[in-house]
Amino acid sequence: MPHEFTVRGSELLAQSPILALRRDRVEMPGGKVANREIVEHFGAVAVVALNEAGEIAVVEQYRHAVRRRLLELPAGLLDMSGEDELTCAKRELVEEAGLEAGNWAVLVDLVTSPGFAEEAVRVFLARDLREVPRPPAEDEEADMTVSWMPLADARDAVLRGEIVNSIAIAGVLATTEVAAGRATPRSVDTRFEYRPTSLAKRRTGPDLKQL
């Protein structure tokens, strides 16, 4: 029988507005208990917005962790209480790209760093697009630019190492398969099994200061 990795204890080490760090004491095979540090995360969504010309909307955004501007997909955190993934994706597509879509599907679900983080991302495919006004942006998003890139060029940019964001890579390659007729996206009603819950529950706990 497979081993059951039981948590024997847990402590909160640090927290910030968009993540927290906890240490779990986990029972290993043979009975040993080992510490495992876990980054708690709200989870996120991203959108491949594909127009009739075969182009996708890409954003270029400064990412301080790597000190560079990266080519990415419109995306955002699932940090609003009670908001489902599709509603979040629709909101982020308007806010970051100034677009609405008449057709939505699920492309892929990602667990980005399962060795130490809970972050999971649902990537949507949005088609039947129309432009709408973008709301005012703040912080890094005030510097964000939006452009259209042919899907084939985006695929080549992935392979040249010019698109390095893992979520964008997955979205571009999955969309390439769909556009070629080799894959079919899933319904938006498909349950997001890996959506994290720890941080959302912690933020609504009665004893914790809201950050």
UniProtKB/TrEMBL annotation:
EC number: 3.6.1.13
A GO CC term attached to the entry: cytosol
Domain of life: Bacteria
Any one GO molecular-function label of the UniProt entry: ADP-ribose diphosphatase activity
InterPro entries noted in UniProt: NUDIX_hydrolase-like_dom_sf (IPR015797), NUDIX_hydrolase_dom (IPR000086)
Keywords: Hydrolase
Stored Pfam families: NUDIX
Domain Nudix hydrolase: 40-171
A single BP term in Gene Ontology: nucleoside phosphate metabolic process
PANTHER family: ADP-RIBOSE PYROPHOSPHATASE, UDP/ADP-SUGAR PYROPHOSPHATASE
Protein name from the UniProt record: ADP-ribose pyrophosphatase
Source organism of the structure: Corynebacterium imitans
Gene: nudF
